[in-house]
Write a structure and sequence with these properties.
With 363 residues, the protein is an alpha+beta fold. Helix content is 21%, strand content 26%. The radius of gyration is 24 Å and the shape is globular.
Length: 363
């Protein structure tokens, strides 16, 4: 319902709106100023996570991942996200207090028949950490099929069923890179801001890999990120941002907005573009990939002052366990994966609303 409110009646209308908002939850109204009418929408307070500080160390992710995989098919199936969330709730989110013995004790209790529900009954913030960490790591582990060389038929490939890490390193197998924990460092181009990702320093032309299966939500030029690509996970929780791609040939030529990509696919090439309002310019001093992950619990967070970008440094270390092997197709002048994957999370078809595809955040 919309109400026309003129300048003289704004104060009275404000009182009416307060009453109406209680009754209806969502009220729209139009204010008539001296130049034009404009619509303002007032929403009731939404209940969703508004901040996540992801500081889980590689050592914890590595050990819980191994426990999860080892327990696959066993009577007691361990869930690595539950294990990590339990530890976070125990330490108040401060993993500097982490003790391996605490994790060992938890696993022992679960294997002896205790349930996670019972063990976390007195933990006030366990549900928060579980939801938050599920948003970060939810698409990383599961069942899948991956191609492998057929030992009985040289030159042929067969699909092998597996359970485990199905997310890939953003850098292709066989290509070196270096990185350090640079999340939160200062950036000054355009305006002073924090660095909201992890820079992976490498060689120009290094194939860049889709970490997780998803849909290409944004491509093109951004003066901060240069040539960049944004990929959204199918559950909508993770937005992967790959920036500073190669001048003249930033993307794999088969990639387009609205397209489904699978974890391990080549999506583009490392470069040094960006920091310029002019397209296709190298103004970054050192060739590198800016890799970032935004968490989205509500679409209002996508491009706003309330974006949630997490520190992916430890995640990148974990993903080095799974790197996609690639080879060049000289006819197409592009790199492609050698071993294909069948990921159950990938839908056969996906309806995309063009209006929902937006430019990726500035970096």
């Amino acid at each position: 319902m919309f109400v026309i409110i003129r300048k003289k009646t704004i104060l009275a209308a404000g009182m009416i709106l307060i009453c109406l908002s209680v009754a209806t939850g969502i009220i729209g109204f139009i204010i008539n100023d001296t130049s034009s009418l404009r619509t303002i929408k007032i929403d009731e307070e939404k209940n969703f996570i508004k901040w996540v500080d992801f500081n889980v160390p590689y050592s914890v992710m590595e050990k819980t991942l191994a426990l999860d995989i080892k327990s696959y098919g066993k009577e007691t199936k361990l869930n690595w996200i539950e294990l990590i969330a339990y530890l976070a709730a125990k330490y108040g989110g401060n993993f500097k207090n982490y003790k391996s013995s605490d994790l060992d004790k938890l696993v022992k209790q679960l294997n002896e028949g205790c349930t996670m529900t019972e063990l976390t009954a007195g933990m006030k913030h366990y549900s928060y950490y579980y939801e938050a960490y599920s948003a970060v790591l939810g698409g990383f582990v599961g069942e899948f099929e991956i191609q492998a060389d057929d030992k009985d038929n040289p030159g042929q490939k067969v699909y092998v069923k597996k359970y485990g890490l199905k997310a890939f390193s953003p850098i292709a197998k066989g290509y070196g890179f270096s990185h350090y924990d640079d999340f939160g460092n200062s950036r000054s181009y355009g305006f002073r801001r924090r660095h909201l990702g992890n820079d992976l320093i490498g060689s120009i032309g290094t194939p860049i890999i889709a970490v997780e299966s998803g849909i290409v939500e944004a491509m093109g030029w951004n003066q901060y990120g240069g040539w960049r690509i944004g990929i959204r996970s199918f559950d909508g929780k993770r937005y992967y941002y790959y920036a500073h791609l190669r001048k003249n040939h930033p993307y794999n030529n088969i990639i387009a907005e609205g397209q489904i990509v699978k974890a391990g696919d080549v999506i583009g090439y490392l470069g040094m573009t960006g920091y310029s309002t002019k397209m296709n310019v190298n103004n970054i001093k050192t060739p590198h990939l800016h890799f970032g992950m935004q968490l989205i619990f509500d679409e209002s967070q996508k491009e706003s002052n309330n974006e949630i970008w997490i520190n992916v440094y430890e995640i990148v270390k974990l993903l080095q366990k799974n790197r996609s092997q690639v080879m060049k197709n000289t006819e197409l002048n592009d790199y492609f994966r050698v071993y294909d994957i069948k990921d159950p999370s990938v839908p056969e078809t996906l309806d995309v609303n063009p209006d929902s595809v937006t430019s990726s955040p500035s970096q």
